[in-house]
Amino acid sequence: LFQQLTTAETPVREVRVLRVDERLEIGPEGLRVVEMPEPATPGYATALHAFVETWLGRIATLRADPRLTLVFHLSGGIDSRVVTAFHVWLDRHGPASVAATGIRSLTNRSHAADFEIARKVAAAGGVALNGLGPSRPRPLDVDEALASWRATSAGAYSPVRTPVSVSPPSEIHFSGHASNGLKWIVDAQAARRRVRTMRRSYGVFGKGDRSRWQAAFEAELDRLTARAGGDIGRGWRRFLRTGRARFHGGQAASYKTQVAILDSRLAWQAAEARPDVGSDFQFCQDVLHALAPDLLEVPFDNAAKALSADARDHLTTLGPLSPNSGRVFGTFPDHAPTDAAATTRGAAVRHLLAEIDRGRRKLPRGRLNLLWHWHDWRIRRRLARDQVPHPVALRHLHAAWLLIRLNELGVELVR
Length: 415
Known about the structure:
Radius of gyration: 23 Å
Helix content: 40-55%
Number of helices: 13
Largest sheet: 4 strands, parallel
Strand content: 5-15%
């Protein structure tokens, strides 16, 4: 419903997700889940320096391998600009890239404003925009496309979003994905307000299990708040990083090699150490200040992301950056084109609808509410007009599709 994981529970009562702060241990008494202790958090400047310098070294390692292509996706926002700043710093201060490396920005009409900002950012950074050759993804047939989504999304991520192709594994993509929880300062009052909004939304759009969902959601938020020292504002930020960021950072990995710098452990540690001063976007602004301060002066897609006088006063200045690079080990699987015809998303949607039509009669009566039926009707109407629904619109199919698949696997549906 909220396009994110809100608890560790799954639709199957006996199965839950392993949380990011847990690990599995196997001992004489069998398998057990252990909650990891809170890591020691250094000062903010130290943690921020470790994050920036370590990732400079990792990207420098990839740039030194001629087999690779590195693609930095840039829009008009602040998240992608932060990630692009790593590329700009290495172009200015590191050895020349042996790998094919560049910045890519969408050029279609709906992204015209983003592209114009990206063009100015690239010019300020002295790097070429859209200079890389076109990607050569391998097309998937319908069965491959649906299998990819089922393996990476079903049961954990709600939207039905099937990839129509996969990029070469040696093509490494960097973007601003999974920055949720890093950008905003959330106090206790704001956190409680957002919790109330989620409760109301679930009361309107949820189906039959509101009390069970609310109990699980509140237990998870209470657990994260306790681990954050009892501060519900910081607990909410952890909730965004472990739930929403996990969702948004995990989607793209189903069809391309995706590196989410802002979802890394080092980024989280720096965000945890950050004092609640300055602007909402202080963490991102500090990274830009350390890597390419001139990029801070280029306008953003939202004026709230710009460097205010207060934020400028609170900028953190890091010591010298001396990243260490290594080498890339291993080989890459072949990425030869197949004889399969290129999959259209419309064909995948029709396939999913056919599965739903075959299995919906077995669902408990009333499990699919009027809102679901309305979205189902809209999707089918668009397909009848040869219009492929936007991937975001397909998430409403999941409420039926997942239950049908679980029933086919022998899971008993609670009526």
